[in-house]
Amino acid sequence: MKRIYIIALVFIFAACGKGGNNSAPAPGKATLVAPLKDLTCNTGVILSATESSVAFSWNPAENTESYDLTIKNLLTQKDIVQNTPTPNATVTLLRNTPYSWSVTAKSSKSDTKTDSEVWKFYNAGAGITTYAPFPAELLTPTFGQVLPSGTTKINLTWKGSAVDNNITGYIVYFGPNSNPDVFRQRVTDSFVNDVTVSANTTYYWRIVTVDANNNISDSGTGNFFVK
What we know:
Immunoglobulin-like; six-stranded mixed β-sheet
């Protein structure tokens, strides 16, 4: 009987130890500060004709030991990830290039990671007086989404933004080919509704954003499948 009691205690202590990380408070959400959202970053230290160092900062998050700063080049879609124990970091980036950035709060006491909002900015370049729009963010259908059988109509939605707030329209490319043809031109809304689709077909789409200075940006190609 005594042996059974000891074994039961071992199981209890083991179970308590296993659940320790899950019972700790989750890290809070970091609030982004700089570079500012949807604006040109002119405060970086110029290192060369092509690069500058950019200072990132955010408000500290509760119950957090370290942060992952993730910076995405919106032209190449490549990420730079830098871990830091402080709510700031300085990173070397390409000039005259659009980026997005976000912060993930982490703690060794919790299995939960908490993501901040995602902000975009344009890292200024030499002699640039106007800037191309940010590449549009494809919203729905999501990348790789599988739509149920019986679907015959879908809505394409996206989000566009520009430093100069001067977007004049969008060119929508859509079709069953991996390099889709122009589907709509001079679209001034950020959606196209009631697009006809067929079963057992993969569709591809992308958005080209045009501004008042005839600068353009390309979202890159998304795809989805209709059962």
